[in-house]
Amino acid sequence: MTSVHRDVETATPRETAEGETPHPLGELSEQDLRAHTAEVLERARRRSVELTDAVGDDDLVKQHSKLMSPLVWDLAHIGSQEELWLVRDVGGRDPLRPDIDDLYDAFQHPRATRPSLPLLGPSEARSYVAEVRNKAFDVLERTPLRGRDLTRTAFAFGMIAQHEQQHDETMLATHQLRKGDPVLHAPAPPPATARHLPEEIVVPAGPFTMGTSVEPWALDNERPAHEVFVEAFALDTTPVTNARYAEFVDDGGYGDRRWWSEGGWSYRSEYGITAPRFWRREDGRWWRLRFGVYEPVPPDEPVVHVSYHEAEAFAAWAGKRLPTEAEWEKAARYDPATGRSRRYPWGDDDPTPEHANLGQRHLRPAPVGAYPKGVSAVGAHQLVGDVWEWTSSDFTPYPGFVAFPYREYSEVFFGSEYKVLRGGSFGSDPVAVRGTFRNWDYPIRRQIFAGFRCARDLRPGDAGV
Ligand code: AVJ
Ligand code: FE
């Protein structure tokens, strides 16, 4: 391995709910909480419908890549999870379709095999998810949103809305892999307005509160809040741009063994990788395919569709390393003025279009410097939105982790096979992104909307040490 992996989590962790600010959802009346929850579920459904109505039936049942499910599988799987948790478990109602549980169990059937299953067809899948939704809304109306962990502050409903949005992002990735003319359209993201940003910011040494014990819809792997000591480090102010990444490519970075870990080198050799996925060199410049549009690679946008291995190699080439997950979260949440951890880089308010490029409002990352209102307390830009950011950390449980409500959401994935990604992308909905949210994937994956930024240890004499 060429990059340096340090264990920054040296302090004995202890649970520190007092290190966080209280959450606004907890202050809503039960009726307002129901209305809010229904709205979030409806927003997810509008997106699922857009992504599936954008193509014809042939396209819905077809597999666009071995890495992905047919879109019609995602759609019915969304309904199936909603039936299991909201209709059957929370509502205690009879199953609608016990016969299809197995088909939509992600653990029974790997993605590559899903097209050969006797799946619900497009119109059956559409009526199934609509029927489940009607029942789920009825359950929402009748369920007290307190008491039981599963229903307190509408947790299960929030979990299911996040699940649907996660699959909506997966469906967006399937669209990106799909061949043919563009079928999805969205306005361009805002231009860069913050100019001449410093290359790096410095985060001083000290403890901070990582994870959460107060965010009502946080998933099990984000819990509990605990104190982590992080050494001083420097972090790139913004994600690595296409222009900077192209320097690495054009410098022969993909062919230089020095920059790659052992696993990274064999991966890049086996797959013959020479540039980010969807890039092509033509007429002496870089072009890319983006949702069916062939266009020059925009220099100022964060690079996207790179694997962990490529991110790690770039960082080594640049004389840096990837941040650990704790470093990323401290840069995103820690407020030196209060000593507390915020919900988001900009504070505790839910994301708006001014804060971050989220929610599939734009079908691409925004140029660096486009979200000055989203800056974190320590000065990092665009930590949330635009591109998921690879960290050097394996996906492991926090001290005190308890699987909830099912082991298959997080626990079965813990270990060294997966790397953690943070911050969400232009394809992630705000309900499924926060300062504590943890995503994970194999280090070879690059169909996801992932980029990265670099970090480095501070040298004596660097400002802030
Ligand atoms: C958290 C994005 C890794 O898509 O595999 C969806 C989320 N879990 N259905 C995934 C998830 C169950 C998960 N990730
Ligand atoms: Fe799922």
TrEMBL record:
Keywords: Iron, Metal-binding, Monooxygenase, Oxidoreductase. Residues 197-456 form the Sulfatase-modifying factor enzyme-like domain. One of its GO terms (molecular function) is gamma-glutamyl hercynylcysteine sulfoxide synthase activity. Pathway: Amino-acid biosynthesis; ergothioneine biosynthesis. Coiled coil: none annotated. It catalyses: gamma-L-glutamyl-L-cysteine + hercynine + O2 = gamma-L-glutamyl-hercynylcysteine S-oxide + H2O. InterPro entries: CTDL_fold, DinB-like, DinB/YfiT-like, EgtB, EgtB_Actinobacteria, Sulfatase_Mod_Factor_Kinase, SUMF_dom, SUMF_sf. Gamma-L-glutamyl-L-cysteine binds at residues 111-114, 441, 445. Its cofactor is Fe(2+). It comes from the Bacteria. Residues 41-171 form the DinB-like domain. It holds the Pfam family DinB_2. The keyword Oxidoreductase applies. Its EC number is 1.14.99.50. Residues 1-32, 341-360 are annotated as: Disordered. Fe cation binds at residues 77, 163, 167. It is an enzyme of class 1 (oxidoreductase). Transmembrane segments: none annotated. Catalyzes the oxidative sulfurization of hercynine (N-alpha,N-alpha,N-alpha-trimethyl-L-histidine) into hercynyl-gamma-L-glutamyl-L-cysteine sulfoxide, a step in the biosynthesis pathway of ergothioneine. Belongs to the EgtB family. PANTHER family: HERCYNINE OXYGENASE, SULFATASE MODIFYING FACTOR 1, 2. This is Hercynine oxygenase. It comes from Saccharomonospora xinjiangensis XJ-54.
